[in-house]
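From the shared-data thread, chain only:
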Amino acid sequence: MKELNLCSSMKDLYLRLPNRGKHYSTTNNHLKYVAKPNGKNQQWVGDFTHIRTQKGWLFHAVVMDLFTRKLIGWSFSQQRNSLMTQAAFKDALAKESPGNNCIFHSDQGIEYAANDFKGIVEESGANKEYE
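Structure, as tokens:
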């Protein structure tokens, strides 16, 4: 970044939204207490990043299998919301099947804590948790 004279910017990215607690809840972190996976579809992780473009922010959500270290699901969106993370998780489900004891791990961002997102994870048979 330094060589290309690039710098990061967080201006206007996060909005304060009162009353959003009605739509999400937190979960405990169990991943730090279990052994590393010894096969695929045992532990999945999700995260997203943002890219500033000339037309505004572009958000990119991914799902990765911790054993294979492969990205198994992803999505792009112009809006930062749970629809973006739901699309990435659904993309992963179209390619892989999580085991009944598969742990899905993410941070406590609203995009992953949303009840709509958690419902998709529960329907898949995976266990939801946070960092």
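The longest helix spans residues 82-95.
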